[in-house]
Amino acid sequence: MDADLQDDPDEIPELYRMITEDGFDLVSGWKKKRYDPLTKTIPTKLFNWTTRRVSGVMLHDFNCGLKAYRKEVVKNIQVFGEMHRYIPFIAKKEGFHRIGEKVVKHHPRKYGRTKFGLDRFINGFLDLLTITFIFRFAKKPMHFFGGLGTIMFVVGFFSAAWVIGEKLWYSYVLHVAAPRVTSSGLFFVALTAMVIGVQLFTAGFVADLVSRNGDDRDRYRVSERIGL
User: Fold this and answer.
1) Whole-model pTM?
2) What is the domain extent for residue 93?
3) Same-domain pairing of 96 and 129
């Protein structure tokens, strides 16, 4: 919980009861009535809406510090950097699907200053993109890099073929002087797209090899380990 005394410790017993008696894996607080300025509440609503859409976890307040967890959740999730706000998302991806929510009291700030700012707002969305990418492609990076590289290469290849075909059409069908292939801007765009496509495909291939030979190659879902 936060150290600015805006969270109410009287909520802890009920959070604990929901874990021990109601069978939740994780219970998150929801500051339904907040005593914060609009400069903080409006960006927070946008952040929570985006996180719900991306993660599929239907919580109203991902940033609420009042949360309760089963021991298995804490021991089987990895949190780094500022990923603490996405613990419900991480827990769900690791097989803990019983996630609950409880409305909690929120008090006006008495001490200290808010640490919320534009940089934290932007970093939060960047962290969301990072964690989404990790969970979706960490075990299959080739699906991302290889797919994107293939698209780039195909677009570049057909663009280059169009430029060369146009040159041949003018020269051998119409028998007129045709502009040089290298004088076309599209040719260089096509060439660049093919080079980037090959690089992305290669990056995906190397990343796939690293992933398959990593220390966690035999890691499996926690849901299988604890029988959820």
Assistant:
1) 0.60
2) 9-137
3) yes
